[in-house]
Amino acid sequence: MKEIERNCKKRLFLNWFVQALVFVITGLSLVPLFFILFYLTKQGIGSVNWSFLTHLPRPVGESGGGVLNAIIGTLIIASLSTIMAIPIGVTAGIYLAEKKTGKLVHLLRLSTDILQSTPSIVLGVIAYLWIVKPAQSFSAFSGSVALAMMMLPTIVSSTEETLKLIPYTLKEASLALGVPYYRTVLKVILPSGISGILTGTLLGIARIAGETAPLLFTAFGSPYLNFNLFKPMNALPLVIFNYASSPYLEWWRQAWGASFILIVMVLCFNLLAKWGASKWKIKF
Amino acid sequence: MKDIKTDRRDIFFHKVLALASWVVVCLVLGILITLILSSLPIFKAAGLGFLFHKVWDPVNHRFGAMPFLAGTLLTSFLALVFSLPFSLAIALFLGEYFYQGAIASFFQSATELLAGIPSVIYGLWGIFVLVPLVRKLEMKLGILPYGVGIFTASLILSIMIIPYAASIAREVISLVPTELKEAAYGLGATRWEVIKHIIIPYARSGIFAGILLSLGRAIGETMAVTMVIGNNNQFPTSIFAPGNTMASVIANEFTEATSNIYLSALIGIALLLFLVTTVVNIIGRYIIKRLSVKK
């Protein structure tokens, strides 16, 4: 009798011990997150002010100056890649959702999986070989192409997932009314799934807005305000990387400031996507 | 008359759908072919020895990828080892102990936030916060206090991959059938015994897949690693020594590559990186797909 009791106590203690261990380790894993956010806010907020947002970078030694060109550059490059990725991504997503089986479906699934896992630096190398080298010039356009390739798999899979959730009866009803297949897809199925596609796109933008590696040898960065897509353009992640590896105190301060702006931008896109996902959830 | 018109439009619609799909497929094929063609010069010049040579000396046209292969292997495996207990704990916490409620959604959002931070910001934080800490540690241990190096890069990487490994492991853990768990509880098992004898064995292959997928991510990660690894092209002698990974050497030297053979060597490394991450990811995804079908 006593032995059983002792055994039970041991088991209960072990159970309690593991539970405590899991809770403690989970709690510990959040320490780096708060550490990073703490430093970002502490160092970042101090450097962000109106002139930091509205001025161009100044040469080393002069104080002040801002990152206006990088903010505008990030917005331009991200929008351009979104414009490039959406038509192909959504159409390919419709194909996946509608066909379900077949040779091309398997190939397409494999391709999106591969593209999703391709390291971003490799996409930068590709955009360099395809566009920068033949054109003999770094350009915002080549950076957008690299980022569009990164975004493509996210859009394809979110389109597919969303369209698969739409009940088959909706499609049958439309077809039974004599609506041709292409109109059924374009006017019935696609509009019902538009919210999910938008959410996926927002997540894709959040993913590429902070990407640096594909821009290193495509958009390259520039100290000037530039609207020409075929010239080098600055972007926030590039500013952070270049300033952080420089030896100047003033530039370090500005790198923190730029990081703060970037993280706010990325968070906004993420929150927007999350809010959209819960608000426009498909209900049938 | 009208029917024929509709038919034609339907056929056209199908063709547009297929065309977009072919664009994506050709994009991936194009990436592979471009990488192979552009790296041909180095493989012609050095053969497969390019992969195994230990010396990388662009000035004297000697290119060996071994130091970077070793750097990538070391950093990603160390990162896996550092992150494994944390990601397993989070997965158990969210998949078994608190699978709903306010605490669960708080931790869920926190890990999502951790995954959403751009890698260049991890790098910045690494340079100004983590490197001084590691330097202090190295002084205490009595080794050369570089601060930067393979160890620091692994630390940053492990923080970055925790959310990925945890979210996959959590999904796999929630796939474990409730009946199985209830049967074990019914027999009087404690929670730990259920975890040990039911959940872990059932989810083993899925957890392995999660580890593989986060390994793929660690191998391809560029910016944060580039900023804290020290960029040394020697073969790494210790885990505290500065080194270089495949991704970071491309990031550092691609714009400086002056000769064709130099560029081709870097593209050869990119090809290798592409192939390795692709293989690792495809195996991981295959395991997860098989698991979800079984359910």
Could you please describe the fold and organization of this structure?
The complex is a heterodimer of chains A (284) and B (295). Chain A is an all-alpha fold and 284 residues long. Chain A has one domain (66-279): MetI-like (MetI-like fold, Orthogonal Bundle), CATH 1.10.3720. Helix content of chain A is 76%, strand content 0%. Chain A has eleven helices and no strands. In chain A, helix 6 crosses helix 7. The longest helix of chain A has 32 residues, at 68-99. Chain A is flat and about 75 Å long. The mean pLDDT of chain A is 90. Chain B is mostly helical and 295 residues long. Chain B has a single domain, classed as Orthogonal Bundle (MetI-like fold). Chain B has helices spanning 2-46, 49-52, 66-97, 102-116, 119-141, 150-174, 178-186, 191-220, 223-228, 246-253, 260-294. The longest helix of chain B has 45 residues, at 2-46. Chains A and B meet through helix 1, helix 2, helix 4, helix 5 and helix 6 of A and helix 1, helix 3, helix 4, helix 5 and helix 8 of B.
